Amino acid sequence: MNNAELQEQNTNPKQLTTLIEQHKLLQIISSISRKLLAIRSNDNFGRVVQDCLSLLGESMSKNRIYIWKCRVDSDGRDYCLKLYRWSSENNCANDGAPNKLFYDEFPAFRAIANGDKCLNRLSRDFAASERAILERQGTKAILIAPIAISGKLWGFINVDNGEAEQLFSSVEESMLMLSGSLLANAIENMETDAALREAEERTQL
């Protein structure tokens, strides 16, 4: 069913908007799933992930998306390493986002680390230290979703709104959480396959 058919069947504007958003969510999740399932080698894995992030970002009409993986440094400090990013601009190399963020630098990660809820907040409502990081990127609102694999926190995915101080919808929250789970599982599988191949190559030497 397309948007025109939905409009014909529903006259309540609020209900219609919700149904259209839900329909879009299903389409995006389906498209991302197909792209990830179609991967035939790790050689083009990064490009496929970028295509998925582009699809997600453009569907939400937002500026930037980041995928972070949880790590622990040699001193036992928790931090997030940036694995992938997408930007609506042609070049996001100098977008102001650090390559890694320690939890004590950005406590918002810790606040949602053990839950299944998104953090949906305007930049001006963050603590001063966090707000400074967001302002360097021109972020006016941010949506962060935790990603768990096998019940254990794997990382986070976030989307930035650099155009307006506007919170994200509940459908956008669901879209980000579902997409993040699909992408993280694909990344983890790719890294596992690469490690196995490397181990096999070493044994053959």
Summarize the structure.
By secondary structure, this protein is of the alpha+beta class.
**Rounded radius of gyration (Å):** 18 Å
Report the count of strand segments. Answer: 6
Give the strand content. 15-25%
Q: What percentage of residues falls in helices of 4 or more residues?
A: 40-55%
Q: Structural class of the secondary structure composition?
A: alpha+beta
Following the backbone from N to C, one meets helices and strands in this order, namely HHHEEEHEHEEH
Overall pLDDT: 87
Q: What strand order characterises the main sheet? A: 3-2-1-6-5-4
Cα shape: globular
Q: What can be said about the biggest beta sheet?
A: 6 strands, antiparallel
Low-confidence stretches: none
Distance between the ends: 56 Å
Number of discrete helical segments: 6
How would you describe this structure in keywords?
205 residues; alpha+beta; 6-stranded antiparallel β-sheet; globular
Descriptive overview:
By secondary structure, this protein is of the alpha+beta class. The protein is 47% helix and 22% strand. It contains six helices and six strands; from the N terminus they run H-H-H-E-E-E-H-E-H-E-E-H. It has helices at 3-9, 13-37, 45-60, 108-112, 128-136, 170-204, and strands spanning 64-72, 78-87, 100-102, 119-122, 141-149, 152-161. The protein starts with a helix and ends with a helix.
